[in-house]
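== Sequence and structure of one protein ==
=== Format: two labelled lines per protein ===
==== Data for this protein ====
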Amino acid sequence: MPLTQAEKAAVVTIWAKVATQADAIGAESLERLFFSYPQTKTYFPHFDLSPGSAQLRGHGSKVMHAVGEAVKHVDDIQGALAKLSELHAYILRVDPVNFKLLSHCILCSLAARYPSDFTPEVHAAWDKFLSSVSSVLTEKYR
């Protein structure tokens, strides 16, 4: 189900704040992912996954850059993330459920950092947006 204009506006508004701290939020979200869902670490055997490591920060930056691209192209998330979808499906072979787990961790990080801005409506908009991102990233598996 596509995002409404109000949901798109909520996503873009929060992203304006997130963009200034995207790298830190990305790293924090990955730390949450690896702590809460340790099985996801299997995709990163070559990474130093300790909190604050350079590799964790670097990958967190990549994750949030992709989220930023999806925000920027909210009307064509599929086109914006097509190459990333292929990479994760055909080369990295990431289990699709992990995108949903990471989306949840991103939501938690955003809610923790922006409690007064993260109203129930904004939360619902971001949840729907990240679900769309997850769907795009898993469409090559079908």
